[in-house]
Design a protein that fits this description.
The protein is mostly helical. It has a domain of 64 residues. It is 71% helix and 9% strand. Helix 1 packs antiparallel against helix 2 and helix 1 packs across helix 3. The longest helix has 37 residues. It is flat and about 60 Å long.
Length: 130
């Protein structure tokens, strides 16, 4: 990550390059709060989606009572509504969408490399044991 130089002009921009994700985030003094909130909400959305997938697996596995399913459904719905309300209140729907697209694209790129990495690791182990 880049260090923030001291004594920047008031309207200076800073680029942070996330090498692993191959993604650049442009931050300037005018939009730092919106950008940070957009990033946080994008991460919250990802966590909520993960919770939803886990809830579905638990429901399909039969490990939840009817009352727990109802409570879980209400809670996830309230989380969705709260995130949407924050995005509306701060006018950052587009910012969150943009961050999500960048994160999703980067993650898809990483995930497509997993089979290649696994095959390479398997080949290395086979060669080492031969």
């Amino acid at each position: 990550m880049s260090k923030i130089p001291r004594g920047l002009p008031r309207r200076a921009s800073i680029s942070i390059h996330l090498k692993v994700l191959k993604m650049a985030i442009e931050i300037n003094e005018d939009n730092i709060k919106q950008g940070l909130l957009g990033l946080v909400l994008a991460l919250v959305e990802i966590i909520v989606e993960t919770l939803k997938h886990q809830a579905v697996r638990r429901m399909e596995g039969g490990s939840l009572t009817d009352e727990e399913v109802e409570r879980l459904g209400r809670t996830l719905k309230e989380l969705d509504q709260a995130v949407e309300a924050i995005k509306d209140d701060y006018g950052i729907k587009e910012c969150v969408r943009s961050v999500r697209e960048g994160l999703d694209s980067s993650l898809n790129g990483i995930l497509t490399q997993v089979p290649v990495i696994m095959a390479s690791e398997t080949a290395r182990k086979v060669a080492a044991s031969a």
